[in-house]
Structure formats: C-alpha cells, structure tokens
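Example record

One chain of 416 residues, shown exactly as stored in the release files.
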Amino acid sequence: MKHILYFQKNFYKKIFLGTLCVFLFSRNVLADLQTDLDRLFLFIQEKQWDQAEPLAKELFKTNPDQLMVRYYFGIVCNNCGNYEQAAALLQQVVNEEPSMVDAYHQLAYAFRHIGKVQDALDLLKHAHELDPENYMVIFHTGVVYSMLNRPDDAIGQFGAFLARFPDHPEALFFMGLVYQFKKDLPQAKRYWHKVIEKQPHHEQALQELAKLFFYEKNLGEAEELFQQLLSYNPHNIEGYLFLAEIYVLQGNFQKAVNIYFQAVHVDPTLVEAYIQLSIIYLTQKNWSSAIKSAEKALSLDASRYDAYLNIGYAYNQLGHSDDALAMYFKALEIDQNIPNAYFNIGLIYQAKGDWDSALNSYEKTLSLIPQHGDALYNMAETYLMCHQPAKAKEILNRLENIDKELAEKLQKRIAE
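Predicted structure tokens for this chain:
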C-alpha cells in the first residue's frame, strides 16, 4: 500500500530552483532539468511507477547532488520496493533539509519496511513536532503503532485521521486490522465492509474479510468474497488456496481440483497446490494421480516430507509395501519426528508379520503422541498376535482413558 503526500508543486520548484542557482547551472540545463522533474512529479502523482523509475534513475545519475532529485528518487524507490535505497536517499534529504516534513514520513515508510520500526516512530514523532497538522504523519504514525502492537495508540492516530478523512480506504482498512488484533472481530468486519463499500476492488480488505469468515466457518460468505477477490486479481495465489480449501471442506473435490490447477497455471512452482492435489487424490483413491502430484511437489521442493508420506500411502494401497517403506524412511530422513510415518511403518511391519519392528514403530509413534489411540490399539493387536495377552491388557487400561470406542473393540479382541 502506498501512502504518499507530496509538497505543492510550486514549493518544489522554489526549493529546486534555489538549489540550482547555488550551483550556477546554465539556463538551458536548468530548464531541461526542471522539465524532467515536472514529468517525474506527474508520473509520481499518477502512480506510473514503470515510467517514473527509469526517469528517476537517469536524473539521479546525472544530478546526484540535487536535493529534489534524491527526494523524488526516494519516493519512487519506496513504491518500487527498493526500501534500502529509499532509506539511504531520504536520510540524506532530511539531513540536508531538517524542516522537510514530508521527507520524514517517506523515510519512516522505508524504515518500517526494512525492520527499523522504532526508528520510524522516532522520525514521525519529530515530524509531528514540526507540523502537528500533517495528516500523513498522523496516518503513518498509526501504521507504526499497529506494527509495534500498540493498538490503542494506533486507534487514536487513525481516529484523528478519519475525523478529517472519514472515507479514506487505507485508514479504514488499517483500523480493521487493529481491531482484529484486539480480537474485536465485529468492529474489524465493520471497517472492512466500509472499505469495500468505498472501494469494491480493495484487495487486502476483501482478502482479510474473506479469511475472517473462513476461520469463523462461514464458508458461504468466504467463498463469495474469495471469488470476488480472484475476479479482480486472478494472480492472488492465497485466494486460490483458500477457495480450494473451502471446496474441500464442503466435499466438492472436483471444484477444489479445478481451483488448484488454476493456481499452478498462475504459479507453476506452487508446491502447496501439488501437495493438496495429492491429498485429494488419496481421498478419492486415485493412487496414481496422488503419486504423480506428490512427485511434482518433490521436484520443486525436495524437503517436503509430506509428499513422501503421500507417495508412501499410495504405494501401500497399491500393494507395494517395500516401496511404501522406502518413502516413509525418506520422510524420516528429513524430519525424525513424524508420528504418522512411524505409525504407517508399524502397520506395514505388522502386516508382514515382523512383530518386533512393528512394536518398535508404534513405540516411536507414542513417544511423540502418547494419546495416539490407533497406535495403542495396533500395538495391543500385535501383542495378541505374539501370544502376549497380558501386554495387550496393559494397553487396554491405557486406551480406556483415551478412546472408549477403541477400548471396547480391543476388549472384544482380547476376549476372543
């Protein structure tokens, strides 16, 4: 989000012309340079950053000592994501012209994007002393307070700003974020709805409101908002992932698959989409597609142990138990603390009649999740197969406090 306040154009000209006169530029050079600055100013006003950036770079290359060139270039760098360079340029500007209030909030904007949030607050406080009525200083101070987890201070700043500009979408949006942080969700919704009323295409407000409905299990509202979000910005990856998850929760797996494929069309390197596709295919017992999707995920990120787990499960369902074991062990090479890997290994060893290996795997599962009811049940089953009913009865006592249904099932097995 870009929140830029600029000096009046004539004020720029006065400062700039005065600076040029000190350096005794020729009249033609002065005219040419001022014309270029006028063009750059218009590009900045219109937020045409693709036009502003090359022009600002060229002006800085030929006129690096000019105060207003550095100021403009700093603004452009802020809006193109070059925050380190913006901070360096704008720091020079405020050092040379300590009364230039707008440079302070521009520098504060750069600082908060490079992690120097407290420094940003200190700058804004100084700017407020210079000009207590500067509304952009008030706005940015609210943003910084919200980043410092000082919600009441942030509300005070945004409230003062909104008293002057009650329909400002960015202030309304941030006010919603602050109330969300305070866990006042009705207020957060109220502000985000206001943003969308004023600016129906406001991507962040749509996304935050949709996520809030999603976490409240209001899937219908969430679905509608994510669809709206993607219609405005078909490159919003998070929107695809949430929308697909909504369809999964609704049991509409084909819609979810379609959304994941749309997501990887936008971003072919989206590992999470391939992982989720493999899970859907496992649910549908489409083992070959599950393996293919998980392998694609691994080709993009070999550290995704969940992909190995999915492939292992599919292999086991296809009757390739040794291949399944190999996949589970590969997952454990990445992370030794995966309870489901040990549990599934235990199931395979139990099916093979390798009782000791099965029991060892279930023990490892229980060392990570002591309340794992299925691991306890299958461990007891294994003891029964080993003709050790006393051990099975010991497990029954533990299982009765964890899962009554499994305990009753085990009791029947012991009685057989």
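Notes: The first helix runs from residue 9 to 22.
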